[in-house]
Specification:
The complex is a heterodimer of chains A (515) and B (142). Chain A is α/β, with parallel strands linked by helices and 515 residues long. Chain A has two domains: 285 residues, FAD/NAD(P)-binding domain (3-Layer(bba) Sandwich), CATH 3.50.50; 189 residues, no CATH class. Chain A has eleven helices and 21 strands. In chain A, a hairpin with a 5-residue loop joins strand 18 and strand 19. Chain B is mainly alpha-helical and 142 residues long. Chain B has one domain. A two-stranded antiparallel ribbon of chain B has the order 1-2. In chain B, helix 2 packs across helix 6 and helix 4 packs antiparallel against helix 6. Classes of the chains: A alpha/beta (515), B mainly alpha (142). The interface between A and B is medium-sized, with 27 and 27 residues. The structure holds flavin-adenine dinucleotide. The site of flavin-adenine dinucleotide (FAD) has 38 residues of chain A, from helix 1, strand 9, helix 6 and helix 11. Chain A: Keywords: FAD, Flavoprotein, Oxidoreductase. Chain A: GO terms for molecular function: oxidoreductase activity, acting on CH-OH group of donors. Chain A: Its cofactor is FAD. Chain A: Pfam families: GMC_oxred_C. Chain A: Belongs to the GMC oxidoreductase family.
Chain lengths: 515, 142
């Protein structure tokens, strides 16, 4: 059933067996997994079925650290930010879950094996199943091309699978609307999670609409799934009983905000013979109706030995060169000239035989490729979300984000760029040119990937985390958190597939609890 | 003379320092492209390096990279010295045309695997490869 909160009378109390705050990928997935006989689910969504400027404006806030698009990196209507996500899917790597003595605050309470059973369902939800993210044989066989064998043992082949991308609001709206055990409440902003005076459990949710209606939702259990920036905000705003905010006795809520630093134009790769870099390394290839591309990921051995953070790279062809191009280059075309010089100097090492690489195109010299990256950041307590003094249209304090990166993050990035260059050259694929100075400064092009992680991190120790291994807020019996805010470390994989795997795991846990 | 770079008491120090300066000069001249286009002379050293340079498909392009390498490593701006350095790295007779490509390819791969690298104008190159290009630069300079 679909209800517009503005159609309900003011002061109405709704009851359910489970109340979920937020109708994005996390909330919708838990709702779909949970709704059923004897489990009435109420899914509470701030927006409607399509974007609206006044609702979207509730996401505005202020920046105190690296500039960040607080409203632009999220969408506030049914389906949440999946309304404009890119569809990159990949599981976190097993090492991302480990306690690594060179990564402060690292370690999940469980290993990747705890999520492995859920990646298939997660893949189905985003229309990429079956999950073949680490199955090199599958992609080798199905593309009919060999994979690059990286001889230095520094890089391994992993695979992005691309969601169409699934717009959760569009894809699951009808299912949500027709489910007899589910109430989808639209235009309903949760403004407070009200706790019992003992602060041991949640009493109800307070809801307001932009037109001024006030409602309440009561359930024995609640899941907060409002996204990685809004989850801490709602906890911090819920400060009636606990002045520092719900779940915040130990001042962890909002801390450890992590993003995957993305840097552009940091290196070029030149390749003379594209047969040495099969198509799945350069572009998305379609296999059995699904798109995939290689993610170059460092081996765990290298990460351990050299005490580095994780990273993933992708490459894509940016342009081709012919020997005759040189004549047309102006004095400012230094990059093109340098790439052409490299291709022609190393020609014998980068292609077989002494003849032209392409017999049909004898002056063809090769291509250059741009490189993309997503870096793992160190969990940093000083990188954080707090409440600003400014308020939104509902009178709620906005967020203040202080996103910070560390020198350890930067050094790791630089080391991995060199590592990639070594491997591609050792494999005879190409040569890499580094274009960023190793001068202690992040390149100005550094941005985030619209991935909001870590702000309600998971730990078995309440001093170090907001939620426990079951995603339950420490000290509160009935409140759970879903989404990437629970990630204690970020790895280098895009979050959404992992959010969904965790959501299915949380649903399994909730189903196992007494009614 | 005050105590400084040339304050050493034996004349060998001074000669080394001067030789370095000459190499530096040569490297800088190469970098500036001043010697480019000079007719190549068939010196004994150069003839001996021919098989090595046969693996370099485009010597002019290689020379550009080689000049950049020599600017950072002026002490290697000497044909005979470079040839020796390469011979040592390749552990082979560099005038044996038949095996040279295989040998060089193997050495480059080893350099990349072991991390025996230099950055030349941003390019991450195996040390052997960079010296090969330097050889091309010197050979072109005649
Ligand atoms: C441009 C862009 C590209 C991206 N590309 C990728 C990609 O390729 N791969 C990938 O893995 N990830 C990608 N992401 C990130 C991805 O979109 C998020 O990881 C994902 O949407 C998170 O899901 P979520 O349900 O936790 O949060 P959200 O999608 O943010 O959903 C939160 C929901 O909660 C609702 N809500 C918020 N506050 C309240 C409140 N107070 N009361 C009620 N409801 C509330 C919102 O309206 C929204 O519907 C991208 C993001 C952006 C912006």
């Amino acid at each position: 059933m679909l209800i517009d909160a503005d159609d309900l009378e003011d002061g109405r109390l709704l009851e359910a067996d489970l109340a979920i705050i937020g109708g994005g990928p996390a909330g919708i997935t838990i709702a779909r997994a949970m709704a059923g006989p004897r489990r009435r689910v109420c899914l509470i969504e701030s927006g409607g079925l399509s974007p609206q400027a006044d609702t979207q404006a509730l996401y505005q806030g202020e920046n105190a650290g690296i500039a960040y698009p607080l409203a632009g990196s999220r969408l506030r209507y049914l389906g949440g930010t999946s309304g404009h996500w890119g569809g990159f899917c990949r599981p976190l790597d097993p090492i991302d879950f480990e306690v690594r003595d060179w990564v402060p605050h690292s370690g999940w309470p469980f290993g990747r094996e705890a999520l492995d059973p859920y990646y298939e369902a997660a893949s189905e939800a985003v229309q990429v199943a079956p999950a073949r993210f680490e199955d090199a044989d599958y992609w080798r066989e199905h593309t009919g091309e060999p994979l690059v064998d990286f001889p230095a043992g520094r890089i391994s082949n992993r695979f992005f699978q691309y969601s169409p991308p699934t717009r959760f609001g569009d894809r699951y709206r009808e299912e949500l609307r027709t489910s007899p055990d589910l109430t989808l409440l639209l235009h309903a902003n949760v403004t407070k999670i009200a706790a019992l005076p003992s602060a041991s459990a949640v009493s109800h949710l307070e809801i307001r609409t932009l037109s001024g209606r006030r409602l309440q939702v009561r359930a024995p259990r609640y899941v907060l799934a409002a996204g990685g920036l809004e989850n801490p905000r709602i906890l911090l705003l819920s400060n009636d009983v606990m002045p520092a905010g719900l779940g915040n006795e130990n001042d962890v809520v909002g801390r450890f905000f992590m993003e995957h630093p993305h840097v552009s134009n940091f290196a070029d790769l030149v390749v003379a013979d594209l047969r040495r870099l099969p198509s799945i390394y350069r572009s998305r290839v379609n296999v059995e109706g699904r798109n995939a591309q290689v993610a170059y990921v460092p081996t765990p051995e290298v990460l351990r030995r050299e005490r580095l953070l994780n990273i993933s790279f992708t490459t894509g062809v940016a342009g081709a060169y012919h020997s005759g191009d040189r004549a047309g280059l102006g004095p400012d075309d230094t990059q093109a000239r340098s790439r052409l010089d490299m291709l022609e100097a190393a020609r014998r090492f980068l292609a077989d035989g002494a003849g032209p690489v392409d017999a049909a195109d004898p002056t063809y010299a090769g291509v250059w490729l741009g490189i993309g990256c997503a870096c793992e950041p160190v969990p940093n307590p000083d990188s954080r979300v707090t409440l600003a003094e400014t308020t939104d249209a509902l009178g709620q304090r906005q967020i203040r984000l202080d996103w910070r990166l560390t020198e350890q993050d930067r050094r790791s990035f630089v080391a991995h760029v060199r590592s990639l260059g070594r491997e591609l050259a050792a494999a005879g694929v190409g040569r890499l040119r580094i274009k960023v100075a190793d001068d202690g400064q992040w390149p100005e092009s550094v941005i985030g990937g619209n991935h909001h992680m870590g702000t309600t991190r998971m730990s078995d120790d309440p001093q170090r985390g907001v939620v426990d291994r079951d995603c339950r807020v420490h000290g509160l019996d009935s409140l759970y958190v879903a989404g990437s805010s629970v990630f204690p470390t970020a790895g280098s994989a895009n979050p959404t597939l992992n959010i969904l795997a965790l959501a299915y795991r949380l649903a399994d846990h909730l189903k196992g609890l007494p009614a | 003379m005050t105590k400084g770079a040339f304050s050493g008491h034996d004349s060998k120090d001074r000669a080394d320092a001067l030789r370095l300066t000459r190499r530096e000069l040569l490297a800088l001249t190469l970098a500036a492209g001043l010697l480019r286009g000079l007719p190549q002379t068939a010196s004994a050293a150069q003839t001996a390096t021919e098989p090595l340079l046969d693996v370099v498909s485009n010597r002019a392009a290689a020379a550009v990279l080689g000049r950049a390498y020599l600017v950072a490593h002026p002490e290697e701006a000497d044909l005979a010295r470079l040839r020796t350095l390469l011979q040592e790295r390749l552990r082979t007779d560099v005038s044996d045309e038949a095996s040279i490509l295989v040998r060089i390819e193997r050495q480059l791969r080893n350099d990349y695997i072991r991390g025996d690298l230099v950055e030349v104008d941003g390019w991450l190159l195996s040390l052997t490869e960079a010296r090969l290009y330097a050889l091309a630069a010197l050979a072109r300079a005649g």
